[in-house]
């Protein structure tokens, strides 16, 4: 961060540091009852959330097929690596707006170190390119 700190500049600097990485593999969203049958699926899930209605899982497609789980859409994971100070707000929102302008749906999972976007497999390369362009525009705006 520079000495001429403003929230807008801090956001631009953070977006300029963005490095979207397309992770290997394909993933699906599945849900199932939260009982002993869900333990194996939860053990291989990329992420899961226990809801009142059951367990929602993001799981590798191969594991979902192996376990006989039902799913609709195959997704790719984009990890948003960025240098974001704790007081900066809006980096993920900027990424989502960029994808929205291209009609690319995305589901966000926030974790301790990075945010992760799950996008339809057929649009994954386009999404990564759009995010790289966002980063480049932010970088140029700082010069």
TrEMBL record:
It comes from Boseongicola aestuarii. InterPro entries: ACT-like_dom_sf, CASTOR_ACT_dom, DUF2241. Residues 7-72 form the DUF2241 domain. Gene3D superfamilies: VC0802-like (3.30.2130.10). Pfam families: ACT_3 (PF10000), ACT_7 (PF13840). Signal peptide: none annotated. This is ACT domain protein. Residues 87-132 form the CASTOR ACT domain. It comes from the Bacteria.
